[in-house]
Amino acid sequence: MTELIRLERDGPIGILRFLQPEKRNPYSIAFVEELVAHLREADRDDAIRAVIMTGGDHFSSGGDLVGFQAEVAKGARATSEMIDKVHDGGRAAYLFRKPLISAVCGVAYGAGLSLALSADIVVAAEDARLCEVFARVGGCPDTGSSWLLQQRAGAGVARMLVLTGREINGQTAKDLRVVEECVPAGQVEARALEIAREIAAHPMFGVQTAKRVMRSAAECGYLGSLDIERDAQCVLLGAHDFPEAMKAFLEKRNPEFKDR
Fold it and tell me: Taking the model in full, what pTM does it have?
């Protein structure tokens, strides 16, 4: 069986490397299964403090429409079950506990774009090609893009990109707030590694809790976010590295975190 994704390690950074850039890394069921398995492996490995997803020359061209046709031909139930399997990839990426960064070169279309947007931070090449392609093929957004894109860019920009099926480059995506950073193509992975190492330098439990708080707060109102923050801080302030940080501050020394 062809290996579609490999989990590599660069010190405390895990790199999920998609291995079919010449085919533009189609988002197939097999791809999803490997993605989910590798994310679970990275989650269990305490030596990995942050993860980067990269497809090399191309991030992902999106859903394997040819491969999906056999399931669609079986009817609505089989189609629904297939889509749910496809959604497992984005679901695993979005719920991944550790910081996750997408390094996007080449195409990120449809489900491939959704996967990129499920990360905490997206670094895109200036000439990357991003597209909510669904309208072009008579479909509607799936793999979470209807929500993810609105969270990042706002409802108006999201509707424009979805309804037109317009392709945008990395610089336009940065201007529209679809991605966080835009760099020349040859610098994408290096920049993603810089960000990952910056994050990995902090106590991991605090970073993971901060990610969970940010994600949960984004899905509720202001008052609900205060409750989420209170509950998380009650744990961190009394039981982990924050007390050491405060003690070090008072003693005018560098903190000695147990979670490094």
Answer: 0.90
